[in-house]
Amino acid sequence: MKTISLVTSAILAASMGLTAQESVCSPWEVGSTLTTSSNRSWFFDLSVTSSNGITVSSFDVHADAGSEWQVYFRAGGYSGHTSNQGSWTLLGNYVTPTNLPITAYLPLDIADRHFDSGTYGIALVRVSSGSQTTPYTTSFAGDSGPGASISGGQVRSGIFSGTLRSRMVGVCVRYHVGPYGRFNMSTEAPNGPLLTTPLWASPADVYGETGGQGSSSLFYPFDSTVTFTAPGTTNSNGLLFDHWKVDGVEQTLFQRSISRTSGGNQNLTATYDHPRIVTLQANCDGNAAVTSVTSSPADRFGTSIAMSGDTLEFRRLTEVTFSAAPLLGDCVFTQWRVDGVVVPSADGLLTTTIAADTTIVAEYGQPSSCFEGDIGPALGMGDDTLSTNHALGFDFPLPGGGTTNAIDISSNGFVWLQAGSSSDTGQAAVLPQLWQNPPRICALWSNLIMPTSGSDVHFHALPGRAVITWKNVSILNRPQMFTVQCTMFPNGRVQFAHIGEIPAVAWITAVVAGNTAINQPGPLNIATQSSWSNTFDAGWFWQPLPNPNPHGSRVFTSAPIEGGFAGADLSNLCAPSVAMAYGSGCASDVPASFYQLGDGSDLASTSYRMTPNAAGGYDVDVSATNLFESAIGTNRDLNDDDLETVDLPFSFAYPTNPIGTSSIDVCSNGFLWLEAGSTSNTAFQANVTSFFDLPTRLAPFWVDLNPADPLSDGVYVNVLSNRVVITWNDCVRYNGTTPLTAQCILWADGSVTLSYGSSTAVTLLQVLTGWSPGYGATAVEAIQLSTDVPFATAAPSNPIALDVAPGSVPALGQTVALEASNLSSAVTAGALFLGVAQQQLDLGVIGADGCTLLTSVEASMPFGITGSIATVNLDIPADPALIGDTYYTQVAVIEPGANALGVTTSNGLTLTVGDF
Q1: 3-state SS class at 689
Q2: Half-sphere exposure for 390 (CA within 13 Å, toward CB)
Q3: In angstroms, what CA-CA distances link 458 with 89, 473, 479, 491, 633?
Q4: What is the pLDDT of residues 608-660, one digit of tens each?
Q5: Radius of gyration of the chain, Cα coordinates, nearest whole angstrom
Q6: In sequence order, what are the beta bridge partners of 46?
Q7: Of 885, 565, 559, 620, nearest to 771 (Cα)?
Q8: CB 487 within 8 A of CB 467
Q9: H-helix or E-strand spanning residue 785
Q10: Residue that wins the pLDDT comparison between 915 and 895
């Protein structure tokens, strides 16, 4: 009997960590004593000695080509089980190839079945035959190879069906010998294992398996790289993938795919957990509000934009970036609050890891400052100049996309958003250039000039913002001086402050993307809107058209939104600067005006003389005789509420016009305008306020007379060489019936005679008789001519007036210019008093009659006198704590001869510090 090897060299190149495969095989030979009619199964034992097991790729049989076979195995060997088919496991049905000669070994390919260390019984059963095999007559013998051996061998009849012919087959076991690795895959959740969540591997293992639900094992040769993948969510109970564990050690979070190298046994567990809920909220100054918040990444449902009040769900320890809109109505974003803890954010972004259920609040509020007082150093800019490459300290989002971190500043009220993008200083504000030139922000683009030594452009990069200030500038050929500020924030918000009076000429405020002649920014009329939005991603512009009224102080803001821009007027939310006069300067004891107001009955048949005196006023007395002139001249045919200009043959001088006037306007309602053309007012009803506020007026008998009434005679004028006689002769009041007569004579020497007829009593209306230099003259108390004559008036007293200079306001960080006007030529020096409280201290007790100290004096600033107006500059510190503080100022000057003390004072001026 000849013995031939059945398992030939399957050699492991252990020194190189490689696996060898069996390539040559010799048959087993058994006797040919069995008959062709016997049904038989052939059994043998496969012993695996390798600690890493072996993987059998095929059982090769020396049998019929194209024959069908079944292969079974069982652990523990075949002995005693040849007749018990239930103790065996079917590996599968296999058919030998038909294209190989019957003398070759034909493979039963079992697709790399792994056998751990141990003994296994193998059963081969032929189900159907093919072509005839070459007969063998040798008997069975065992064989061995690296890590495995076969032994025994028995042909048995029994419950294993099949036909084993008398010509017996040989068998070759083809296998890989270790090292092989096993991956045991499983899933788990907080409450135990997940049995329904599939896990997948790539590539397939040696058996062609790629995983499945629940726990499973896959086999790979050592040093194979395998990628395992877990689904992001379970198909039940809403759990989310959280992390992998390898042999109990947690791996990188939320890495659903993990690659491992095979070697030995490894346990891979995909861990799932409940999602973490993020509740979004928003408020404006503590009041609940609604706004949108963007998250990146989106939550597990794909939601990336949520409104306040919504919830988002993320896997545990997901890192999420939230973005809040810069504006919420007229509130601006200030900070985040995460589970009650404040998280500052200049750009509106919040990046946080979601470890537990979390409440995130986007907090908004009114701007902390409408004008940035810390404006930084002056750039020393002249007219039509460009100051370049100023670092912002952050990336500013450009309108239209991209960012910039440095700007160029023009003296003409705008900035180029990309340093070096243009050398144009932009002298003239030309609208098409907004979209044709590079990106820019125009705080107030016009032909600005620097009118004073304190005029300049300032730049300051502060934490979380950059501030550009055009301080104390003017527009060419316009006297108004104002300040403009632009503050840029990392989230794209821009805040503008216009402080002072800006003249009514064309200028442009804008935020524009530029660089195109097609995609133009959208126009806005900010002057009429408290808030606004548009869908122009190229930006926006505001170009107020010239109008009769100047543009006053204003604070507003804008910020990018999805597809456009939004903005709001912040003026009403800011603290305005206030300058308000109170009290008055030194008053003269002698009035400049006089008047009486009554029914006029006491004037009947009387005459009064007004004679110029040395004090620059009139001595007023009653005449013992009636001075009424009967030669009243020509009827001028005045209508009701009518004016008639009368030319004088001489220059008539009066207290406020020593040169004199050569023509007057006569009103049908009983008064004269001493400067012809000074007003067209023909008011029929006597009014004390307008008597002092309107131009110079002499009122012999101001009441609603109607010389055109059929019951009236008319208004007469007689022009003589040394006098002009004006007579309201027998004129009834409107709808009245009683004729009334009054006469006024203007003499060439500046004196005045007032005479009245026998009938002067008026019912229902009041008659005003008197004299006023007008133009806001100091009001006096009424007198009664019948009892108070004689009396005297003096030249109008023009007390020193204190006010802020045009365009100047007491704003934070600004220099407010205070102007003292009406200074006489006798004034030699002065001082500005500054106090924290008002007071009323009569200075007459020390010789300054008519003067009052109106402020407490905590500080004083001396100043020199160069004319009738003196300017004192008062610096307001850039300290936000000063906002709302009120101070009281007054000017006192040395004026020899004005009174015994030789000192006069101005009115008081209240200064309330604001931020615009």
Answers
A1: helix
A2: 26
A3: 90, 12, 22, 22, 71
A4: 999 999 878 999 999 999 999 999 999 999 999 999 999 999 999 998 898 99
A5: 55
A6: 120, 150
A7: 620
A8: yes
A9: helix 785-788
A10: 895
CA dihedral 835, 840, 843, 848 (to 10 degrees): 90
CA angle 839, 845, 848 (to 5 degrees): 85
Q: Which residues, 6 or more positions from 704, have their beta carbon under 8 angstroms from its beta carbon? A: 669, 684, 685, 733, 734, 765
Nearest to 843 by CA among 587, 613, 630: 587
Contact 364, 328 (CB under 8 A): yes
| Residues 271, 246 contacting (CB under 8 angstroms) | no
What are the percentages of helix, strand and coil residues in the chain, rounded to 5?
Answer: 5, 50, 50
**What spatial distance separates the first Cα and last Cα of the chain, rounded to whole Å?**
117
Q: Which two tokens stand for residue 686?
A: 């006597």
- At 190-237, the pLDDT tens digits run 888 887 788 999 999 877 889 887 778 888 888 899 999 999 887 667
- Residues 780 and 772: their CA atoms lie apart, in Å, by 10
Q: Which residues of 269-287 are buried (b: 16+ CB within 10 A; e: fewer)?
A: bbbbbbbbebebbbbbeee
Residue-wise pLDDT for 75-128, tens only, equals: 999 888 887 888 999 988 888 887 766 666 677 888 667 888 999 998 888 777
Which DSSP symbol is given to 551? B
Residue 378 is classified by DSSP as: B
Cα(85)–Cα(339) distance, rounded to whole angstroms?
68
Task: With beta carbons less than 8 A apart as the criterion, state whether 183 and 220 touch.
Answer: yes
Q: Count the Cβ atoms, other than its own, within 10 Å of residue 881.
A: 9
pTM recorded for the entire structure: 0.56
Residue 544: how many other CB atoms lie within 10 Å: 16
* Beta-carbon contacts of residue 475 (< 8 Å; ≥ 6 apart): 446, 447, 448, 449, 502, 503, 505, 507
Q: Phi and psi for 273 in degrees, rounded to 5?
A: -150, 170
3 state DSSP class of 692: helix
